[in-house]
UniProtKB/TrEMBL annotation:
Residues 235-323 form the Beta-ketoacyl-[acyl-carrier-protein] synthase III C-terminal domain. This is Beta-ketoacyl-[acyl-carrier-protein] synthase III. The active site is at residues 114, 250, 280. It is found in: Cytoplasm. InterPro entries: ACP_syn_III_C, ACP_syn_III_N, FabH, Thiolase-like. GO terms for biological process: fatty acid biosynthetic process. CDD domains: KAS_III (cd00830). It comes from Aliidiomarina soli. NCBIfam families: fabH, PRK09352.1.
Length: 366
């Protein structure tokens, strides 16, 4: 099929909850410290949401649409990447469609864990380049703090809530996602898993959602998977590391980001890093990072950007993105989520206590 169009990024935006959970806050109820967390992950704080994933997604979407000066009625597709949907049925995307008034858009969710947003970009770009779609809204949104076991230090310190979004529009200019590679290492799918959903016995549920997170194995496979994906997209385009202006990767661990920067030979100061502020927000890390990279001037018109992602499944992906001519929003895209008066600790401590009680109940039963 002849590819006649490119998928230009015309809008970008984010939504990060106002409640901040610092490492020192975590140390008040977990056996941890700021030094322990930062030395292993690079994370200093993360955000905790008092509202559902769909609301985070909606605000990020409104910001991206404002940035593109696009009316929601012009959209023909909405894709929401998430692994923390508000409900099993209906999907988050339909709720966002309704909230935006984007009645002409098809809407579906996509779950590839931390890779979800990039998978959505891959699919949306294919749809635009083949002429099936013209204006697509893609969103990565998560409320991970609701599914964590807050008694487990090794995973509880890593994640946070947030959302980011992009608008992709058909363009004759060579820009947007020029090459991409997505894959899945399913042999090791259980090293990052949440035992919940329709597999659990709802009549014998003890309140504990078992979250398996094998950090060393995940890191090893992430390095292998992302390296292979990055090499693949360079081969597709004929580009070399010398053509790269910026690296905007999934924000999972600073050590992993440093490895990618070294591998891609990205000049100092051209790797987007915001994990220290938000932790790992799964599918939301990439669009939040892009929004902030444009805001702080890291991304300039015509820049060539490399992105790489890795997530549960084990899903993986990488892409080469050519930024368009515009780096300024056409309308204000800084709408924020209002607080409800609760601090991050107010929101998390009941979850921590509930997890402790559920585990005690399970142990008594055993």
């Amino acid at each position: 099929m002849k590819l006649e169009k490119y998928a230009e990024i015309t809008g970008w935006g984010k939504c990060v909850p106002p409640a901040v959970m610092t490492n020192d806050d975590l140390a008040t109820f977990l056996d941890t410290s700021d030094e322990w967390i930062q030395s292993r992950t690079g994370i200093a704080e993360r955000r905790v949401s008092a509202v559902g994933t769909s609301k985070l997604a909606q605000i990020a979407a409104e910001n991206a649409l404002a940035c593109a000066d696009l009316d929601p009625s012009e959209l023909d597709l909405i894709i929401v990447g998430t692994c923390t949907a508000d409900e099993i049925i209906p999907n988050v995307a339909s709720k966002v469609q309704k909230a935006l008034g984007a009645t002409g858009a098809a809407a579906y969710d996509l779950n590839a864990a931390c890779s979800s947003f990039f998978y959505a970009m891959h699919n949306a770009t294919a749809g635009i380049r083949t002429g099936m779609h013209k204006k697509v809204l893609i969103i990565g949104a998560e409320r991970l703090t609701r599914i964590l076991d807050w008694t487990k230090r090794e995973s509880a310190v890593l994640f946070g809530d947030g959302a980011g979004a992009m608008v992709l529009e058909a363009s004759d200019e060579e820009c947007g996602l020029l090459a991409s590679k997505i894959s899945c290492d399913s042999d090791a799918r259980d090293v990052l898993a949440l035992d919940f959903g329709l597999s659990f016995d709802r009549y014998n549920f003890d309140g504990v959602m078992d979250f398996n997170f094998e950090g060393q194995e995940i890191f090893k496979r992430a390095v292998k998977g992302m390296s292979a994906a990055v090499e693949d997209v360079f081969q597709q385009t004929g580009m070399t590391m010398d053509d790269v202006d910026a690296l905007i990767p999934h924000q999972a661990n600073k050590r992993l980001i440093d490895f990618l920067a070294k591998m891609c030979k990205v000049p100092e100061g051209k790797t987007m890093l915001n994990i220290q502020k938000y932790g790992n927000t799964s599918s939301a890390t990439l669009p939040i990072a892009f929004a902030e990279a444009v805001e702080n001037g890291m991304v300039k018109p015509g820049d060539t950007i490399v992105s790489a992602v890795f997530g549960g499944g084990l899903t993986c992906g990488a892409g080469i993105i050519k930024w368009g001519k515009r780096v300024k929003p056409l309308r204000n895209n800084q709408k924020t989520l209002e607080g409800n008066g609760q601090s991050a600790l107010d929101l998390i401590l009941p979850l921590h206590q509930g997890a402790k009680e559920a585990l005690a109940k399970r142990n008594r039963k055993d």
